[in-house]
Design goal:
Blueprint: H1 30-51, E1 57-67, E2 71-72, E3 75-76, E4 78-81, E5 91-100, H2 109-116, E6 122-125, H3 126-129, H4 136-161, E7 167-175, E8 190-194, E9 197-198, H5 202-210, E10 216-222, E11 225-231, E12 234-236, E13 239-241, E14 244-251, E15 255-258, H6 269-280, E16 290-293, E17 296-297, E18 303-304, H7 309-318, E19 323-327, H8 331-334, E20 343-347, H9 350-361, E21 371-373
Parallel strand pairs: 5-16, 16-19, 19-20
Antiparallel strand pairs: 1-5, 1-6, 2-3, 4-15, 7-14, 8-9, 8-10, 10-11, 12-13, 17-18, 20-21
Helix pairs in contact: 4-6
Length: about 375
């Protein structure tokens, strides 16, 4: 009988077939067997322990959705007084994201592993979500100011779209500690121009800063006195930051109140504006269709990109939306990751968004409208 493959050193006399039903004892030394089981047990216990060790990540998930044509616990999300309004139909959902984990309460590795298996979740490094030089409290305050600015810009965009007069006033609401603007810009400074461009709202300031390499020039009023100052922005990725919280102060011809407590950030601006336009114009814009969308908006109606777009797509489906409005600049993230049953239109302005909604409402051909893909992507 020849030696088994892979064992050329075993003599033929040592090779025997095991008789049926006969059990042969493990000839390995008992001490070695114990060591092997001990190593396996230790590995398993170490893996189990590691699963409950704090991780350096947070998880981004779809958050609550709100219909800008509907109500919240605080009452109607949008209330208009002093102007004629009209009945609406359908839904215009704004979308949010939620983060699990923060520096005070980090997620365990087992939580991160579970999120890895869910396509609606995103895993983000802790230091990206919560930079070391910004406290959780400061981050929440920044989100609150961004939401306030977003609402003001949305009202301005909607009213300007409808032909109403709007007066703008942009001021410094706060300066971030250790930021480039410290000692140069001060709280309550009125910002008139940035790099020669009119500061009509917070978004126009950001665009003006981004348009220039190197220092940015601010024409301001401080205590009624005009002056010009120069700030060298800090570059982080594709952003140029001077480290201020601008606030929009507009004077409107009538009152538009938006009630959405405990939600921060600027990404609901476009959906706020759409809800206001719908209430101010005869006929239901959506004709009963369920829409969702996201995007910042400037007072002049320009729609800007946002974060968490994939999570918001899944949130839209959970809310029952069949059509979605996404900023053009987010299309690269959206393509190939759209949940089934959702059509995503790409928009660059408030007019683009209104055109998409009205085209669908009138059952007209939408093939000429720009999209980010279809619900067949995934």
């Amino acid at each position: 009988m020849s030696s088994p493959a892979g064992n050329p050193s075993i003599p033929p006399s040592a090779v025997r077939e095991h008789p049926p039903h006969r059990r042969f004892p493990d000839v390995r030394p008992r001490r070695l067997r114990r060591a092997g089981w001990g190593a396996l047990t230790a590995t398993a216990l170490a893996s189990l322990a590691l699963a409950f060790v704090p991780s350096p990540y947070v998880v981004e998930v779809p958050g609550p959705t709100y219909d800008t044509l509907g109500t919240t616990d605080a009452g109607p999300l949008i209330s208009i007084e002093g102007a004629e309004t009209f009945p609406t139909e359908g839904e215009l959902h704004l979308l949010t994201i939620a983060w699990y984990g923060n520096p005070q309460r980090p997620l365990r590795w087992i939580d991160v592993a579970q999120a890895y298996l869910d396509p609606a979740d995103a895993i983000i490094p802790m230091d990206s979500a919560f930079p070391d030089d910004v406290s959780v409290e400061d981050s929440n305050e920044a989100g609150r100011i961004e939401m306030q600015n977003s609402q003001q810009a949305a009202v301005a965009a909607a009213l300007l779209h409808e032909g109403h007069e709007v007066v703008s006033d942009v001021r410094v609401a706060g300066v971030i500690p250790d930021a480039p603007a410290v000692g140069i810009l001060e709280e309550d400074d009125r910002i008139l121009r940035v790099n020669g461009q009119a500061a009509y709202d917070v978004f126009s300031i950001r665009e003006a800063i981004a348009s220039v390499d190197g220092p940015s020039t601010f024409d301001i009023e401080r205590d009624g006195e005009p002056m010009t100052v120069e700030v060298t922005p800090l570059v982080e990725g594709d952003q140029r930051l001077v480290g201020i919280y601008p606030s929009n102060e507009f004077t409107f011809p009538f009152e538009v109140d938006i009630q959405l407590p405990n939600v921060g950030g600027p990404s609901a601006g476009m959906m706020f504006a759409l809800g206001i336009v719908d209430e101010l114009t005869p006929g239901a814009m959506t004709a009963g269709t369920s829409w969702a969308g996201t995007g910042t908006i400037s007072a002049l109606g320009d729609v800007g990109p946002i974060g968490g777009i994939v999570q918001k797509l899944h949130g839209a489906v959970e809310a029952g939306a069949t059509h979605f409005l996404a900023p053009v600049e987010n299309c690269g993230e959206v393509s190939g990751r759209i949940p089934a049953g959702l059509t995503v239109f790409a928009v660059d302005t408030l007019d683009d968004a209104i055109t998409a909604i009205e085209t669908v409402a009138m059952n007209e051909d939408t093939s000429g409208l720009p999209t980010c893909g279809s619900g067949e992507d995934s």
